[in-house]
Design a protein that fits this description.
5 helices, about 290 residues, ten-stranded mixed sheet, four-stranded antiparallel sheet, Structural Genomics Hypothetical 15.5 Kd Protein In mrcA-pckA Intergenic Region, Chain A, alpha+beta, elongated
Length: about 290
């Protein structure tokens, strides 16, 4: 019999009489994860392994075991700015100029490598499962899950039910201090840039509010209502107020060596509880050129 700790097990107490698989589905466990757990022998009833889809009795404990996993990248060590952590979730304030995920040209020195290092130091034998990824030059909140249940649950809600807010320092003074940008986005002909395109673009909506103004610059809070690549950068450029330092959609700046864009706030429900939390990420040091922030 296993010790059913919440780090290695997803545990439920039955509140009604029904089959195990149906009960797990009702609690948000995906069909794919249920099938895999049955195949791998990772479903327990009252602490004992079961192979059949048994009918539950009231107060039975159903448990789904998370298997130990090999790292999905090179393990490297570096201090991380951890904003929140529980058995399912690790939320990091990513520093600017750091790649989020490993790729062909970035197999080390990424946030994934350093989270794996943190996992190793804390005996967390899991892959890193990112929910969101930020551009190399964008700082702020990145969510990483520790198990497939949390990944499935948060991913399914991320687009429509998770509130995501960013801070940007933009060129110029906005005529309208608050508004909604409803402008479809498509990939441009070069395959790198994105652009507003009312013919073939996909629906893209960003709301904004100007918080402060200084020296022909504006500090803007933005809320994503869709999640297109480079959406905020494209929309602000479309308004005629590109982000300071954004060389792809505006121009380079002497103030900052990257686009002045920061993932500032995220509001989501924890995967095992019907509890909403809001997480805030402190601003990076390279935003210091806008004095009203400090």
């Amino acid at each position: 019999m296993y010790r059913l700790n919440s780090k290695d097990f997803l545990n439920f107490r039955a509140s009604e009489k029904m089959k195990v698989n149906d009960y797990l589905k009702e609690r948000g466990v995906s069909s794919r994860l249920i099938r895999k757990s049955i195949k791998d022998g990772n479903i327990y009833l009252n602490g004992k392994l079961i192979r059949k889809n048994k009918k539950l009795k009231i107060n039975d404990i159903i448990s789904l075991k998370f298997e130990d996993e090999e790292p999905n990248g090179k393990v490297q060590k570096r201090p991380l700015d951890i904003l929140y952590e529980d058995d399912d979730l690790l939320v990091i304030n990513k520093e600017p100029l750091m790649v989020t995920h490993t790729a062909k040209d970035d197999s080390q020195g990424t946030l994934l490598n350093y989270i794996l290092g943190y996992f190793e130091e804390n005996n967390i034998k899991r892959k890193v499962r990112f929910i969101n990824r930020l551009d190399r030059d964008t700082s702020g909140i990145v969510l990483a899950c520790k198990n497939p249940f949390a990944q499935d649950k948060i991913s399914s809600e991320f687009r429509d039910k998770v509130e995501k807010k960013y801070l940007a320092i933009c060129q110029g003074i906005f005529e309208d201090k608050e508004g909604i940008i409803d402008a479809p986005i498509a990939t441009s002909e070069d395959g790198i840039r994105r652009e507003v395109n009312y013919v073939i673009g996909k629906k893209s909506i960003t709301s904004y509010k100007v918080l402060s103004e200084y020296d022909n610059m504006s500090l803007v809070m933005l809320t994503l209502h869709t999640g297109r690549t480079h959406q905020i950068r494209v929309h602000l450029s479309h308004l005629g107020h590109p982000i300071i330092g954004d060389s792809l959609y505006g121009e380079k700046s002497d103030f900052i060596s990257r686009q002045a864009l920061h993932s500032y706030s995220i509001k989501l429900k924890l995967p095992r509880k019907d509890e909403e939390i809001e997480i805030l990420a402190n601003l990076p040091e390279d935003f210091h050129f806008f004095p009203t922030l400090y």
